[in-house]
Design goal:
This protein is mainly beta and 356 residues long. It contains 5 helices and 21 strands. α3 runs antiparallel to α4. It is globular and about 65 Å long. The model has no long low-confidence stretch (mean pLDDT 92).
């Protein structure tokens, strides 16, 4: 069902098939999916013949997981760990967010970086995200093949200063977390020649096609199992202090208040915000989702069932509509939630979904 490859991180080509005995992978949006692991049984001569010789070298190779010849995940190999007794090589890999976290947005990357400044005006946040990613992926040795959406004009403005030493991941995460800020997803796919990979940068609406997967957990032939519910108040706040540009007594600060049984105060940084009105909007946007418990559900979906044709047809941000009756903790009825992440293992037919 799954195929696993690696490509060169120098060219994003040089495609080579490898043969792990196990390989976990995860797709999400708005943040890194975190480290995943693939295991290779090098005691098997057939595995050793295809999964060595530099095809799994940390930093130099990117692991690619495909289902029915369609890419569902790609992650940079950052570490490997070899156990001689079992002759097992464990390879740790992580998605493209881990790479853009190591790319500065400044075009001056030497001692002159404090003087660098870039201002974007007359566009939406989505297009500022695009520009920031382009800054981090342009130049000798910095190329990452990415397809972009068209530009969107609008009334947004942002100025970036080199002295902040921001990475692409930091800069776009700040925009993503603003009120009205876009969701952000890097979707891996084959290049046009099918001998390497690229990513498509998706911003804004993560489910423009209104994709819905439906499951009745109370049915005998349900395609899902393992429903879990988690409620958390760790991110709740009754007051948010938004901190913008400046330092010392000149630092810009605005506050937003909510309500709750306990006083819970948080400080949120937004160093690229330069006006008090924008900073107030930022603080107001931060308090709104923090004024309630966060409830998440998770479940496992059988990908061999007809709910989805293949994993490629599933995008982070798609909707899951599910029904449950007769449970002592979870209320009965149909509900629709967004799929904020999904993960798999090449040896399993089950796909783990995280819903919110």
């Amino acid at each position: 069902m799954y195929e696993v490859y690696t490509v060169s991180t120098a060219t994003w080509r040089d495609l080579a098939r490898v043969d792990p005995k196990a390989c976990g992978w995860k797709r999400t949006f708005n943040e890194s999916a975190g480290g995943q692991t693939a295991a290779f049984a090098l005691g098997d001569p057939s595995v050793r013949a295809t999964s060595s010789g530099g095809l799994l070298t940390p930093v130099e190779r990117c692991l690619v997981v495909a289902q029915d010849d369609v890419i569902v995940y790609a992650g940079i190999i950052w570490e490997d760990d070899y156990d001689r007794d079992t002759k097992t090589l464990s390879v740790n890999h992580e998605d493209i967010w881990s790479l853009i976290a190591l790319r500065l947005i400044s075009e001056q990357r030497d001692g002159t970086i404090p003087s660098w400044v870039k201002t974007y005006t007359g566009m939406e946040y989505d297009t500022i995200v695009k520009r920031l990613v382009q800054l981090g992926t342009t130049g000798t040795g910095r190329t990452i093949p990415i397809n972009y959406e068209a530009d969107y004009s609008g009334g947004r403005k942002r100025t970036y200063n080199g002295y902040n030493l921001e990475t692409v991941a930091e800069a776009i995460s700040e925009l993503m977390n603003l009120p009205g800020g876009p969701n952000i997803d890097f979707r891996p796919e084959w290049n046009d020649d099918h001998d390497g990979i690229r990513w498509t940068l998706r911003t804004g609406n993560m489910n423009p096609d209104n994709q819905i997967i439906e499951a009745n957990l109370s049915a005998d032939d349900s395609a899902v199992k393992g429903l879990k519910q988690k409620r958390s108040g760790r991110e709740r706040a009754t007051r948010v202090m938004g901190v913008g540009e400046g330092s010392g007594k000149d630092i810009k600060v605005r506050a937003a208040a909510g309500s709750g049984p306990l006083v819970l105060e948080r400080v949120e940084q937004a160093k690229n915000i330069k006006t008090l009105d924008d900073l107030q909007e930022f603080a107001d946007g931060e308090i709104a989702p923090r004024n309630q418990l966060i409830t998440q559900h998770s479940m496992d979906l059988d990908v061999t069932k007809p709910n989805i044709k293949n994993v490629w047809s599933l995008k982070p941000g798609a909707f899951m509509r599910w029904n449950l009756v007769g449970d002592p903790m979870i209320s009965a009825g149909w509900r629709t939630q967004s799929i904020i992440s999904y993960s798999g293992e090449i040896t399993s037919k089950w796909l783990h979904l995280e819903l919110q």
